[in-house]
Amino acid sequence: MPAPKLDTQIKPSLTLKRRFAAPAEKVYAAWTDPAQLMRWFGPDSGPVHDAETDVRVGGRFSVSFSTEDGERHNVSGEYKEVVPNEKLAFTWQWITMPERQSYVIVTIKRDGDGCILTLHHEQFFDEAARDGHEAGWKGTLEKLARVVE
């Protein structure tokens, strides 16, 4: 019997860090409360149409938003790790490309009167997907800062 093939290809990833002048609890709530997600999610000033969260291991989330150019985007995933006010780890899947599932880890560490958020997104299909997400996440974190600070 032949040995199973292992996927040894290293897939692209990205890591972003940002300090927020807001308590960890407030930043965590912005990621987990649908009403708050509606205020900041997405890379630019386009609207968020819907946000749902079931924040528990095995629970799911979904967010639907449009970018400034009017293009609608729908993303969903499953929570794999939940540590209130400290960590969220979840799968990331665009409705239009379900075969390209990736993985996001958000950690929040207290830092004086604020906190430092580290966003690690891994297992991208290719560098182009990573680069697009990097630009998107930078804009998204900029919007998050305006909501929580």
In short:
With 149 residues, the chain is an alpha+beta fold. The protein contains 3 helices and 7 strands; from the N terminus they run βααββββββα.
What would your notes on this structure say?
The chain has helices at 24-32, 34-40, 127-148, and strands at residues 14-20, 48-53, 60-66, 72-83, 87-94, 102-111, 114-122. Strands 1-7-6-5-4-3-2 form a seven-stranded antiparallel β-sheet, with helices on one face. The chain has one domain: 2-Layer Sandwich (Alpha-D-Glucose-1,6-Bisphosphate, Chain A, domain 4), CATH 3.30.530.20. It has three helices and seven strands.
List descriptors:
26% helix, 7 strands, 7-stranded antiparallel sheet, alpha+beta, 149 residues, Alpha-D-Glucose-1,6-Bisphosphate, Chain A, domain 4
Q: Note the total helix count.
A: 3
Helix content: 25-40%
Show unreliable segments.
none
Give the radius of gyration: 16 Å
CATH superfamily: START domain
